[in-house]
Amino acid sequence: MSTTLLTLEELAELEERQSHILPAGTLMDRAGFVAANWIDDQCDAASTIVILCGPGNNGGDGYTAALHLKSRGHRVICVTVGCTKPKTEDALRAYNRWIEKGGQVIDDPYMAPKADVVVDAMLGVGIQKAISGDFIDAVLWFNERQALHMAIDIPTGLDAERGNWVGGIKGCMADMTLNLISAKAGCFMNDGKDASGMVTLSELDVSVPLSSLSLIDTDDFKHILELRKYHSHKGTYGHCVVIGGDKGKVGAALLAARSALKLGAGSVTVQLLAQGAPLYDPAQPELMITDDDVDLSTADAIVIGCGMGFSDRARRRLQEAIATNVPLIIDADALVMISQDQALEDKVLARKAHTVLTPHPGEAAKMLHRDVKSIQADRVTSARELSLQTGAIVVLKGTGTVVTLRSSRSWINPTGNACLATAGSGDVLAGMIGAFFAQQFDMVSATLGAVWLHGESVRARNSGIVAMDICDRASRALEILRWGGNPDDLVDPYDESEFVLDEDGPGEAIARTMGSEEP
Question: Count of domains in the chain?
Answer without folding.
Answer: 3
